[in-house]
Each structure stands twice: as C-alpha cells, then as structure tokens.
Write a structure and sequence with these properties.
It is a single chain. The protein is α/β, with parallel strands linked by helices and 614 residues long. Among the domains are: 140 residues, no CATH class; 272 residues, Spore Coat Polysaccharide Biosynthesis Protein SpsA, Chain A, CATH 3.90.550. Strands 8-7-6-9-13-11-14 form a 7-stranded mixed sheet, with helices on both faces. The chain has a 5-stranded mixed sheet with strand order 1-5-4-3-2, with helices on both faces. A 3-stranded mixed sheet has the order 10-15-12. Helix 11 runs parallel beside helix 23. The radius of gyration is 28 Å and the shape is elongated. GO terms for molecular function: glycosyltransferase activity. This is Cellulose synthase/poly-beta-1,6-N-acetylglucosamine synthase-like glycosyltransferase. Its main location: membrane. Pfam families: Glyco_trans_2_3.
Length: 614
C-alpha cells in the first residue's frame, strides 16, 4: 500500500517514544476497517497524546514540532473564501521577527513530500513547523474570525434574501394590514352586530378545522418501533458533523460531553463542534478542563449581531466537514444509534430527503406540574403529530434539536435565519418550499423540560414570536407559497401556523365569552338565546380541543405512565400559553430579535440512558 513504509516508520518511532503498542496496533486496524488514514486513527485512538504524536510525526518528517500559537500578530490568508477551512491542514503566520512560519498537521502523503523536498530546500526546514490538527484549526479560525462571523450573519440573505426575517414586516404587508383593519372597523361601525358575529363564527370554524386536523392525526397514529439497523461497514460511513450551540452552560458540559462520547460512530469520522460565544468564559473553561478527543472542537464565536442560536449554527456550518450534520442542544442525551439510523434512512431515499427529525422525549416529567404538561405536549407533538405530518408529506415544523441534514441540502438552503428566534420551524418551512422532504426517525433524544413557570414562560414567548416571524416571512408572497406547496399543503400549513398563533391569542376571550354567556343564562338574561349557535360552536371547540390534545398525547405515550393527571390541567396550561402568545406579540414590536435563553442544569432524572427510553 502507498506510503506503508512511512506508517511502519512512524509506528516504530511512536513505540520508542512510549505510546502503548495496543494503541498503535488499534490505529492500524481501524485505518484499514474505516478506510481512513493511520494518522487520523492515531489521534482518534490515543486521546490526550496529541503532542506526542505530533512530535513523532515531525521526527519522521525531519522538521521541528511546535504547538501552534494561540495568538499571532498577523495571520496570512490566501483569500477570502472560508470554504477551505473545514479540511485545511496548513496555516501561515508572521512571527515577531516578521518571518513567515508554516504550521502543518501533515498526512502521510505530506510527510513523504516533505522528506523529498528537504535536501533541496533549506528554507523549508527553517519555516515549516509540524503541529497538531486542533492547533491548525484554532489558528485558521482565529485568522478568519471576523470573516466567519460576518458570513454566518448574512448566509440567508446571500442565498435566499426573500426568506430573511431581518425585516419583520415589509411596507407592503403593513399597508395591507392597515387597509384590512380599516375596512373591518368601518364595517363594524355600520353593522356592528353582523361584523363581530361574522368574525367570531369565522374564527371558531377555523379553530374547529385545527381540532379536526389533530383528530385525523390521532386516528391514523401508527407504531414507532425502531427499524432494525442493517449491517454497515465502517468503511462506508462518511464523516458526520455534530453541532451544539452553547451559552452559559458550564454546569451541564460534563453531561453533554458524556452524551456525545456515547454516539455510535467511528471517532475518526465524527466531528463535534461546541459553538460558544467568545465572551462566555465559564463555558469555554468548563470545556477546556475536560480531556476532549481531537475530533471534539471548541469553537469560540466572535461577537457579531445578532447573538442568536441560528447565527452560531451558521458559524459551525462554515466549519463543518461532514456529509451529514446534526444539531443537538446542551441538555440532550441522544440514543447512541441515532446517527446510524439517520444515515440508513438517508441512504435508502433520494437526495430530496433533506432532513430527518428524531423524536424528543422528556425525562423529568416527575419534577413539577409544568414539566409534566411539557412532557405530555412533547409526546403528542413528536410521537404522534409530526410522524403523521411527515408520512403525509406536509410541512414539518422542526424541533430545535436532533435535526439531521444532508450538508449539501443545508448549504443550498442558505443555512439558518440568524434573525428568526424559532429558526427550526422556519427552516422546516423553507425545506418544503424549495422542494425537499422532511422525514422522521424513531431513536429518540432525551431532554429535560423547564421545571419553573417563569423559565417555561420565556421559552414559550420566544417560540410564539418566532412562529409569527416565520408566518409573516412566508406570506410576503402568498401566491408563490401556494404554488410551491400546492393547495392541500398550503391549507394544512396555515391550519398549523395561524391556528396555533390565533387560537392561543383568542383562547382567553373564548373562555370569557362562554363564562359570561353561562352567567347570563343562569341569571335569566335573554342575550344567550341570540348567541346560542355561536356559544354551542365555542363549547364544541373548547371541549374537542382539550380532548383531541389529550387523546393525541395518550396514544403517543401508550405503555408509559405520567406522574399525575393531565386532562384537568389542560385549561390552565393553555391559558399560560395564551399569556406567552400575547407577550410574544408585544415583544415582536419592541424586541423582535431578543433571544431569551432557556437555562439548563444537569439532569436529575433516572432516565439517563436514551437506549433504555424507547
């Protein structure tokens, strides 16, 4: 095999330097099994021995080993294209004496080239430094920080500016809303009774259609037993990139690293990016204190507005070298085989399958009432409703975690919208509009729900605000949206998006109308007779809404139990959602891009192994 003599020479040098023989042999074996390089497998197998491996490589190559400088006065860039960064192995700097130094993390082929060039180039010996792969990556990122941050902030605008939420409401939309509101108010002034009753009936029928949609999904619910994994040779597996955006997450870092280390994927083909804000010293230090494998990369992000999760993910996407990309949250514990199932699903489909959503399961439902209701809601959503939407080919509102993408699809879409605070739902819509399909897999990710009402309230406000942003963006060109989705998907999308927003906003008024009508009836006031049909429709909507939500969740949780009752608390839970929706509407006007972070803490749940939480 090409350069096998150099690999043997390097192995002998490593053994003399004290690296365990079993690690060297294992690296050789894995390089054959995975069809990877011996050097890559050395770094993957001998965690914590980067400097030793780098020193031995330098000795074999005949040049100096040196740790890449963490800071440098001048970084020499060959151009402004950051596309080369994920796979680059060379970085050039100027030292304090204005001498150009070349830092390289060489392949076996590079070592052969260096050995051939040394006798005829003394200048090469002086300037060239062998260093570790993480050292080169850190140096390259440091030299491209501003370029990366700027590009991450404007990816969607460069690729598909019409889908950017940077402008919340266009002038044309503002005029249209003003005209419609004026027409309605004038009509209400002339024929108040007819106008308000007509609007009431229309909204009630719309809400009823949303309830029917959930009942249909419940009726067609199928099992979610995980498909068996086929035998896949490690040599056939591509590089998979895992991205986790972190901010003020120092306490949960050990749990997160443990969960990522448990993923069943060859270490030499796994890239894990911890995307941290550059001024978040606590999280950065917590990661640096751990003995991370070389493929686990700490990525500080330079400050650049907006400071949101989607912008951090775009930053990571620019550094991704995987054929597939998955996004996790700080508290996630994914099933170890989730990547394998996603890869198997992608391989069995055509390239128009752009994304796969794994179900999210809540482990701490027993900790509080709000956590219990959140867990029930997630079960209904991820184990019942989303699988039905995916099976029918409707627009799938993605969850913010455990989204698996084809890298080429994600870059064609323009990544995430950094100005949208519910970037996952928006991206799910954009996938459908641009002709891609979204599917579901079954191996779950375990998460923890907020246990305090105020934390839940801020998170839900952000979700509602993002949904309103998304709908306003999609409806800038409604005819184009209709043409891209088709009539049925267009209607179902509006039942989902508008139905969720409007029903949450109007829920307290519907309750107030029902209660006031009931009071009038009990007091003998005849006004209830005039509004009997509307009252009946509202009662049907409210009761069927409660029951459909409850039924959908029960079907999803078949075989498991909740630590307490659900149905009696649904009215209060929905009232809290309504308050969050109104707060989101107010915040959209004043602080449209404010990202109210959800704090996380290490799990106290007994459900630590996601493989046991099927």
């Amino acid at each position: 095999m090409l350069h096998r003599d150099l690999e043997v020479l390097l192995a002998a040098r490593l053994h003399r330097a004290g690296l365990a023989k079993i690690l060297i042999v294992s690296a050789f074996a894995d390089s054959i099994i995975n069809r990877t390089s011996f050097i890559d497998e050395l770094y993957a197998n001998a965690c914590g021995e980067d400097a030793l491996i780098g020193q031995c490589i330098a000795d074999v190559a005949g040049v100096t080993f040196e740790h890449a400088p963490r800071t440098t006065g001048i970084f020499l860039r060959s151009g402004s294209d950051v596309a080369v960064l994920p796979h680059a192995r060379i970085a050039t700097t100027l030292n304090r004496d204005n001498n150009a130094l070349i830092y390289i993390a060489p392949t076996i082929g590079d070592i052969a080239d260096i050995r051939r060039g040394l006798p005829s180039s003394k200048n090469l010996v002086i300037r060239l430094r062998v260093t570790t792969p993480p050292g080169v990556r850190d140096l390259l990122r440091a030299g491209h920080q501003k370029l990366l941050a700027d590009k991450a902030a404007r990816m969607i605008e460069d690729a598909h500016h019409e889908y950017s939420a940077k402008t919340v409401l266009t002038g044309q939309q503002g005029v249209l809303i003003g005209v419609l509101a004026t027409c309605f108010l004038l009509g209400a002034f002339e024929r108040q009774h007819v106008s308000w009753n007509g609007l009431h009936i229309f909204l009630s029928l719309f809400f009823l259609a949303c309830v029917v949609l959930r009942l249909v999904a419940c009726k067609n619910l199928s099992g979610d037993d995980p498909p068996p994994l086929l035998e896949i040779s490690p040599a056939e597996l591509p590089t998979y990139t895992v991205m986790i955006a972190l901010y003020q997450e120092a306490d949960i870092v050990p749990q997160l690293v443990k969960a990522m280390s448990a993923l069943n994927w060859p270490r030499s083909k796994l890239q894990v990016l911890f995307l941290c804000e550059g001024d978040d010293e606590a999280t950065l230090n917590a990661l640096k204190r751990l003995d991370l494998p070389p493929s686990f990369d700490i990525v500080p992000i330079s400050e650049c507005a907006p400071r949101t999760k989607p912008k951090a993910l775009n930053y990571g996407l620019l550094l991704s070298k995987g054929a597939f990309v998955v996004v996790y949250d700080a508290e996630d514990r994914p099933h170890p085989d989730q990547l394998l199932e996603a890869f198997q699903s992608f391989q069995s489909a055509d390239e128009k399958l752009g994304c796969l959503q794994a179900p999210l399961k809540i482990a701490n439902a027993h900790e509080s009432l709000v956590a219990r209701m959140f867990a029930f809601e997630y079960a209904a959503h991820f184990q019942s409703f989303l699988p039905w939407l995916a099976h029918r080919g409707f627009v799938l509102p993605l969850g913010g975690s455990s989204n698996h993408f084809r890298y080429d699809c994600l870059t064609a879409l323009g990544g995430w919208d950094p100005h949208n605070v519910t970037e996952d739902a928006e991206l799910g819509t954009r996938l459908a509009r641009l002709g891609y399909r979204t599917g579901m897999i079954t191996r779950p990710t375990i998460e923890d729900a907020p246990t305090e009402v105020d934390v839940w309230y801020r998170q839900r406000t952000r979700w509602f605000k993002g949904w309103i942003q998304t709908w306003l963006v999609q409806m800038r060109q409604p005819v184009t949206l209709l043409r891209q989705l088709g009539l049925l998907r267009f209607l179902v999308y509006h039942l989902l998006a508008v139905g969720m927003i409007v029903s949450s906003l109007l829920y307290p008024f519907t309750l107030l109308f029902i209660l006031s009508s009931a009071f009038c009836w009990l007091s003998g006031n005849g006004v209830v007779v005039v509004r009997r049909d509307i009252l009946l429709l509202d009662l049907i909507n409210i009761v069927m809404g409660y029951l459909s939500f409850h039924r959908l969740g029960l079907r999803a949780m078949a075989g498991t139990t909740m630590p307490g009752r659900i149905l009696p608390w649904i009215p209060l839970y929905w009232l809290l959602m309504s308050l969050a929706a109104w707060r989101a509407l107010r915040q959209l006007n004043r602080l449209p891009f404010l990202w109210e972070k959800t704090p996380h803490r290490p799990s106290r749940s007994i459900q630590e192994n996601p493989g046991q939480n099927r």
